[in-house]
User: Which sequence fits this backbone?
């Protein structure tokens, strides 16, 4: 019994060993196949290396044969490089100048836009002054109508006072006080009549000045409009030039166009400076005239109000307002 069990174990071990041998044989076959493939790869690499060696030999031979030609070519390339380096320096300087002038034109485009806005602002101010001048004219007309009414009224008061004095003279001593009062009223009416005449003359002169200033304002507005159109054209030309610059344009053509634009721009700037000086002078004149006329109108209003109050305090009645 003991021997049969031991035999059985030995048989099992033999079977296991047989299977391991089969596995090892399969692995050896695979390894042999891999070695064969590797040998084929090595053979191909050797063939490729041989071809490469032959090619390199040809290249080396060709390089040796063309060494002199290459030297000549290298010398020519070196000369070209030097020429191109010098040309690049000149082109770089041209492009640098062109870039500076282009930046200048961009700045001028912005400045022209600002000038246009200022000119439009001046136009608005001039229109406001014109409207204010029209209001002053209406106010002076109203004051003149009031003063004309007061002048007529003082004339009526003076005539009534004179007639009252004549009638009171017929009463003898009883009408003496009334005569004195009537004479005072008549004298006061004559004084106010003279003052009203002077004030009316001042108002008429002021009205003439305002009319003249209105004409100057209209001329000034026309000048501002011309200035706006000129500035707009300058800004459009500069903007068109800036927008027309391309990277493909040659430096010579770019500089030629830039010089032409700058020359034209210089002439327009000179004209524009004269216009701006004229505009500032006109603005100063109009502003001064407007302030003087406004003060004169205020003085007239105060004078008329004072005359009304004084006449009322002195005993006048039913003053027309």
Assistant:
């Amino acid at each position: 019994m003991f021997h049969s069990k031991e035999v059985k174990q030995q048989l099992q071990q033999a079977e296991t060993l047989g299977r391991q041998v089969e596995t090892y044989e399969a692995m050896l076959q695979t390894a042999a196949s891999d070695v064969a493939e590797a040998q084929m790869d090595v053979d191909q690499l050797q063939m490729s290396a041989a071809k490469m060696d032959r090619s390199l030999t040809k290249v080396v031979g060709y390089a040796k044969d063309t060494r002199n030609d290459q030297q000549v070519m290298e010398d020519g390339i070196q000369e070209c490089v030097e020429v191109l380096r010098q040309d690049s320096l000149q082109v770089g300087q041209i492009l640098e100048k062109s870039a500076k002038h282009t930046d200048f034109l961009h700045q001028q485009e912005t400045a022209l836009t600002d000038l246009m806005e200022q000119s439009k602002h001046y136009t608005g101010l001039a229109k406001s002054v014109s409207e204010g001048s029209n209001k002053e004219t209406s106010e002076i007309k109203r004051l003149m109508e009031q003063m004309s009414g007061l002048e007529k009224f003082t004339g009526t008061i003076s005539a009534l006072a004179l007639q009252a004095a004549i009638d009171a003279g017929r009463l003898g001593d009883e009408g003496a006080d009334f005569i004195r009062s009537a004479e005072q009223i008549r004298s006061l009416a004559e004084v106010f009549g003279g003052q009203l005449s002077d004030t009316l003359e001042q108002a008429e002169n002021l009205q003439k000045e305002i009319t003249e200033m209105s004409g100057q304002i209209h001329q000034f507005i026309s000048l501002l409009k011309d200035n706006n159109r000129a500035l707009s054209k300058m800004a459009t030309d500069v903007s068109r030039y800036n927008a027309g610059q391309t990277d493909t344009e040659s430096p010579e053509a770019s500089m030629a166009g830039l010089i032409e634009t700058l020359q034209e721009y210089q002439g327009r700037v000179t004209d524009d400076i004269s216009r701006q000086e004229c505009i500032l002078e006109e603005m100063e004149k109009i502003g001064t005239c407007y302030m003087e006329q406004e003060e004169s109108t205020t003085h007239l209003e105060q004078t008329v109000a004072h005359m009304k109050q004084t006449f009322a305090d002195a005993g006048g009645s039913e003053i027309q307002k």
Observations:
- Residues 91-148+196-313 form a domain with the Butyryl-CoA Dehydrogenase, subunit A; domain 3 fold (CATH 1.20.140).
- The first helix runs from residue 2 to 65.
